[in-house]
Structure prediction request, 587 residues.
Amino acid sequence: MQDSNKEEVRLKGIPASAGIAQAKAFLLFKKELDIPTYQIEPEKIDEELSRFDEALLKTRQQITNIIADITESLGEDEAKIFDAHLLVLEDMALIGETQNMVRQTRYNVEHAFNQVSQKYIAFFNHIDDEYLKERVYDIKDVTRRVLGVLLGDGENTHFSKMYDQRILVAEDLSPSDTASLDFRILKGILTDSGSVTSHTAIIARSLRVPAIVSLHNATDHISADDDILIDGYEGLVIVNPTQATLEEYRAFQIKRESVDQIFSTEATAPALSLDDKKIPILLNIEGTNDIDSIRQLQPDGIGLFRTEGILLRDNRFVSEEEQYAQYSEVLEAADGKPVTFRTFDLGGDKVISTQNYREVNPFMGLRGIRYSLKYPDIFKTQLRAILRASVHGNTKIMYPMISGVNELQAANVLLQEVKNQLQDQGYSFDPEAISTGCMIEVPSAAATIDIITQECDFVSIGTNDLIQYLLAVDRVNDMISDLYEPCHPAVLRTLRDVTDSSHAQNVSVSVCGEMAGDPILATMLIGLGVDELSISPGLYAEIKYLVRHISVADAQRIAEESLGTGDAFRTYRILKQFYTDIFKGII
Ligand code: PEP
Ligand code: MG
Prediction:
């Protein structure tokens, strides 16, 4: 495989999904289009101008389609934002000046259009008028779109161009990028940015595709078609590995496969600790793609169905009927075990193209339940689909990003409204059989847990967000990923308080954040008394093994000790030592 002319280079990042992978690189360029600049022959000017006309027409069609989509899902008012984009396409100053520039300077149309629109962007940026400043976004958006069309979407700006087995190398991947990846041909993922709790990492773990994030400059060091070896256990990327490196990793891979074999022999055994306590292990899923894992692992249920995954995959809102079909399929596959439907957690970095607004701090903005309450029609459509599907299995509904009891009450009012409506329409489902719960992932919800638990049946702690909000550490910002500390005493105390307070009200507590799937950290959660762990399919077998080889009494001792240190680093050392003792002789 190795090209002997190329030197082996090693890059270190954060391991996001375990495993070894080897394939050629596929480089994805996304952020900036590379605008070519060249001059054309005088007799080709008309041809150049018709290329421009065609691109404007094609862009108009793209925007018209988006408007139709939004009008259907969100209503006419929301679609109005795109009218401004259509106006940019008709702006005679912008278009006419570009045409003139092509005629006079004989520069290619991409260069001319880019120059002219940059001039307008700079002009509007300098005017002290909020309305005109807004136009900058419209012009930028339309310029990007027209240039994308002219350049045939640029080189490798979309994964659809990846046709054989490759390791994807990108600066960054948004949740909707990740959701649209074809994991049948994807052998690994490397990104310059990102963190272990970013959506890309979560999906990669769920699908057992090795991934390394936060590599900072992988896209500079790796060229298209370089041979790549990924060590997803250590976060190591080896570019153009030597023969000796390949042999070393072949031996390592054989060893790892035998470890996985040991875990998988107990994967479907009961989740009982050495002292005979049941610790249910549930799955986190994104959609019907995970049905094979549900059938294979036979978990105690689905503790987190990230329903927004359905929207991110298609980059659009999905009708009630389509949602109903997919929810029913998952309920059938769960075979009577509970399926926890988390209502759409849109916002933050999970946006689809129809959400055409910008937020300065999206993670603190219109996210999760806030989005659903602002757009009740979208929310009610989803609730209708879930309630109708509930006849196919054991259904639970959970709201994301609850920050206080008022949001929970408001969501429940809409839920009741939808239940009444469905009953009036003659749908047969049992409204009493559906329990409702909240994600506890915002510190204000944790601090008022005793009030919240009076109004719900269960809670599930979303440690991914809870840690980011508690410690003020953006979960997707690789520059501060060392500050994202699950063992921080503030995190441990919050987990303890939420668990104890919920139990005092007879409300069950699950953890569905990534902490639950980390074999070093899961022991502490068990020791703190959480009732269930909900984890990605790729981590399931190892956590099941852990649960079956520890006693709850030991886990409680470890949790006490951890709480006593008041120090993240010392806590981690205690937990790591415990993990090493349990897995001694295996790993
Ligand atoms: C969490 O925040 O821990 C969680 C499970 O939700 P998500 O990762 O989808 O934000
Ligand atoms: Mg969350």
The pocket of phosphoenolpyruvate (ligand 1) is lined by residues 304, 306, 345, 441, 462-465, 512-513 (CB under 6 Å). The longest strand covers residues 20-28.
